[in-house]
């Protein structure tokens, strides 16, 4: 079977050494089960893999290094990008060329020596390209906007195996900046960088039994902070188990994450109202170099099976906040995290060059994630209850925070109604045979 496909990287078949690791990734739920894996090292390798898929009538999926995955690929060709992870920085132009498999940490490591930073996310191990294709709300979002707003150009392999340089002014450039992976495989992108070398950030952890008002305090505090302040709050219950830090075991906690693009002195002054909300179990706020920005959220690095729901909100209701806190309490059916992020600022402003990112008037995002070791049906009621609590404030979805299978209506809700016909027509044009199997599929529609 593999004689028809040759790449500079490995071509792996089920049962061979390394196949399962490459097929699984970070998300253990809904795993890919391809007929073969192409370990690509170059754009030409991608073209060869797509040509093979076209000859055999196979679907193609791309394994980046992100957290999200919808329904896994059954059969077909899985392109593994981990060997194509180069980053080239132009410090004078303040840009970086980022290859398909580069993680945000690799981009940050390359840009930091020049006093520059990308619009990276909370988890440095996530793939920069896949994150950016889905919009990307990062640590500097309220100051500088969406990651996709900062893309200058893409290199794209389309379903016919051709290569395009996608630049401003084209329909594809508009769609790729926030529209996901439905239109082909981005093998590289040029992004703008911002002059940030350090930030004031980290986390404050509160025991909700001792600081029951912290969610309301954080909510009111977000109404007053400058755009340089990006923050979030997460609620979860730690089991009383030795694998967790002793000071957190058995506690129902709220963790406030802070990323301030200003001086440590100003940052410390701004967070005083939060510190005054109650006793602090853990205080990890400090001035830190941007290369250590992953410490702000300090997200787990080990793979898990999980399912999530997500909504963008135009506001928060105090009663709903209280009920959300209880959903992630000790009685939750599985380990669950309920997270709110403060939006607005530069995220609310349209970029100079239009993109497909919608719902820029959202004030907050809600993300509920549950571990599904015992099956999705165990946590589905919790996810549905959380979304019901915010139904009156929900205005749509963000692709980057949607983990799990999505219906067409779910995907449509991430975009402005008037943009959906443009997206489906473009999909029909560039991928008429629906070759690409993606997390958030946009269906092709033939135009009249």
TrEMBL record:
The keyword Oxidoreductase applies. Keywords: FAD, Flavoprotein, Oxidoreductase. The keyword Endoplasmic reticulum does not apply. InterPro entries: FAD-bd_PCMH (IPR016166), FAD-bd_PCMH-like_sf (IPR036318), FAD-bd_PCMH_sub1 (IPR016167), FAD-bd_PCMH_sub2 (IPR016169), FAD-linked_Oxidoreductase (IPR050416), Oxid_FAD_bind_N (IPR006094). Pfam families: FAD_binding_4 (PF01565). Residues 29-196 form the FAD-binding PCMH-type domain. Its cofactor is FAD. Belongs to the oxygen-dependent FAD-linked oxidoreductase family. PANTHER family: BINDING OXIDOREDUCTASE, PUTATIVE (AFU_ORTHOLOGUE AFUA_1G17690)-RELATED, FAD-BINDING PCMH-TYPE DOMAIN-CONTAINING PROTEIN. This is FAD-binding oxidoreductase. It comes from Amycolatopsis samaneae.
